[in-house]
Design goal:
The structure is a single chain. The protein contains nine helices and 14 strands. It is an alpha/beta fold. The strands form two sheets. The chain has a nine-stranded mixed sheet, with helices on both faces. Strands 11-10-12-13-14 form a five-stranded parallel sheet. It starts with a strand and ends with a helix. It binds flavin-adenine dinucleotide.
Length: 323
Amino acid sequence: MTDILVLTDHDGAAPKKVATQLLTAARGLADDAAALLLGEGAQGAAEKVGAYGAATAYVCDAPEVDAHDTEPKTAALLAALEASGASVVLYPAEPFASDVVARAAARVGGGVIGDVSDLAREGEGIVATKQIFGGDMTSRCTVRPGLPAFLGVKPNAFAASEVGGSPADVVPLDVAFDERATRVRVVEVVEESSGGRPEMTEASMIVTGGRGLGDAEGFALIEELADALGAAVGASRAATDAGWYPHQHQIGQTGKTVAPQLYLGAGVSGAIQHRAGMQTSQRIIAINKDPEAPIFSIADLGVVGDLYKVIPPLIEEVRKRAS
Ligand SMILES: Cc1cc2nc3c(=O)[nH]c(=O)nc-3n(C[C@H](O)[C@H](O)[C@H](O)COP(=O)(O)OP(=O)(O)OC[C@H]3O[C@@H](n4cnc5c(N)ncnc54)[C@H](O)[C@@H]3O)c2cc1C
């Protein structure tokens, strides 16, 4: 029996980066946290969660989980809560997990705290910290012991680390799916095209374009640099709102939180709402023609100049070194 259960996303073979971060966060709260893995490949991925400290991995890879929408996953989550005895669920603060959790929480009368950026034990309870009002204020929410609570942790809020622990005890869940669980069937899954680039929250390098590009066509240069580096492409909200790049690439308070080894921002001013989504990147490079741009205050390396003059020779240099 544990009090922490981690909704562990995986790619069919191993836990995803965000899941390894959540498992690491769970380790700070309990040394016997459990993981829940759903869908095809869950069994194989479950064997890898012990490395991040999970003591038990509950698995539900019944075909219904992938063939139907949110409900079978909700049923499996409720079954895992019962089997594990957990009262606190950590889940990635991402749309699909949030949908599953909202249903589960409503059914057990639990509370949900979204966009958590830090977690700590305080006495018998857990304190979940989140930024509110555009990052101007910090809210600390105490979860009292025993109450069902669902805590949505922001991707990249925690750095993942392995403990090299023994494999988790893998426990198959026998979930009964009623008519409600299988009412909505998935008929087609359309993979978002990323142009062969890595997914932003998983990438080790991100090249980001902002309003300073001047127009949508400017993103061709950002993509060219990203491809030379093997990086993902990010965008500021000004750029996505202008329709220059898809919204799912937006970084920031109302976009994605990223923490790559290298973030390069070109024509991005570094507004507080943008910084909220990238300031924990390990190395930050900024290219901006305004020496007073706020992004320079957090940059490890700043280039004051016109991005259209700075980036082409940079691409050439990167390609030269890669060949
Ligand atoms: C509630 C709320 C939530 C928000 N959430 C987000 C969010 O999630 N993410 C986000 O990004 N923003 C967010 N914003 C918007 C944010 O406040 C800024 O407006 C936005 O980040 C600005 O984007 P930008 O840096 O691309 O544009 P600007 O602030 O206009 O900056 C453009 C920069 O490009 C530079 N530049 C211009 N031409 C060149 C050139 N040729 N070469 C080099 N540099 C050049 C300029 O000097 C300038 O610094 C939010 C705002 C609010 C109110």
